[in-house]
Amino acid sequence: MKPNGGWNNQVNVGQYIWDIVNPNPDRWLEGLRLVHHLMQTHANDAELLKRDLRTLGSMYHNLMEDYPRAAWFWRNAGANHEGVADCYWKMGCKEMAVELLKQLGNDDTRHGTIIKLWADMGELDTALRLAEAKAKDGRPEVAYLAAGEACRKAGQFKRALDFFQRVLAVQQNDTQTRQNDFKQTYERAKASIEAIQVYEMLDLAKVRDGTYSSDSYGYSGQVFVDVTVQRGKITDVKVPRHTERQFYGALDNTTKQILDKQSVKDIDTFSSATITSEAIVNAAAKALASGMK
After folding, report:
1. pLDDT, tens digit (0-9, with 9 covering 90-100), for 94-148
2. Alpha-carbon torsion 138, 142, 145, 151, what sign?
3. Which of 27, 192, 234, 293 has its Cα between 20 and 30 A from that of 181?
């Protein structure tokens, strides 16, 4: 149960997980054990048990990237949302993911998560159709940002730039109550435009040996990235500083992809921390560009 009064992460379990567990990878297993214990404690309380199952689904998905377990806990909690569809996709069951997404219909998520998932599955036309519908429903800045990222994922950079420019053209009005979200979306679009503009000129073979640094706008502020290049190859990617708190596996996952692919293109942003992943990719692109001969 939620305690009376304001935020207190030493009393409320959900707030403890958000503030203490999620931002600290060395406490993730501890957090899982805690919720498993609560699930046993709540065995005779259907409502609390369902909440524990939902929480475990989120933790296995966001923290551990254990998609079979995440799907199992979510489904047993009666959940039927885009997170379950993402589990199906990550487990190689595209048909099940598509079936569930079709049931969900239009994207009513805060950050365009359903649009992103359709794009991740290679269904760009569907993603853009949902983005246009979301724009008409009153969240054009979120819709166009998601559409731009979908086009970037598909390698359609000119089209992506057009959508990002449409984000910058949106005027905030009195009906848009999420002022922080609006500012964040605007800054993300600017950062993505800046990164894409260096894509065409970027040639790893022309980057001088050394370590190059840059930063880009994340969820909570600037995310700083160091990229080391030796003899035309990326040898290391690090995130030395950031203020992100709900970054989940994005730091390790995204930097590893850049290193493995030897590129900042076609990077799969981490589904539960898309904004942090985007910031790492954008900062890495600018860092590499700064080392060009």
Report:
1. 999 999 999 999 999 989 999 999 999 999 999 999 999 999 998 999 999 999 9
2. negative
3. 27
Please, what are the domains in the chain? 1-79 (no CATH), 90-200 (1.25.40), 203-290 (3.90.1010.20)
Q: Report DSSP letters for 179-213, one per residue.
A: HHHHHHHHHHHHHHHHHHHHHTT--GGGBPSEEEE
Residues 6+ apart with CB under 8 A from 16: 9, 10
Question: Across the strands, what pairs with 292?
Answer: 207
Q: How long a stretch of residues is the chain?
A: 293
Q: Which two tokens stand for residue 262?
A: 């030897």
DSSP for residue 170: P
1: confidence class by pLDDT, cuts 50, 70, 90: very low
Cα dihedral angle (83, 89, 95, 96), rounded to 10 degrees? Answer: -30
Residue bearing tokens 């992506």: 160
φ and ψ of 4, to 5 deg: -70, 155
Average pLDDT over residues 195-200: 86
Tens-place pLDDT, residues 248-290: 778 888 999 999 999 998 888 766 668 888 899 999 999 999 9
For 91, the token pair is 């487990």
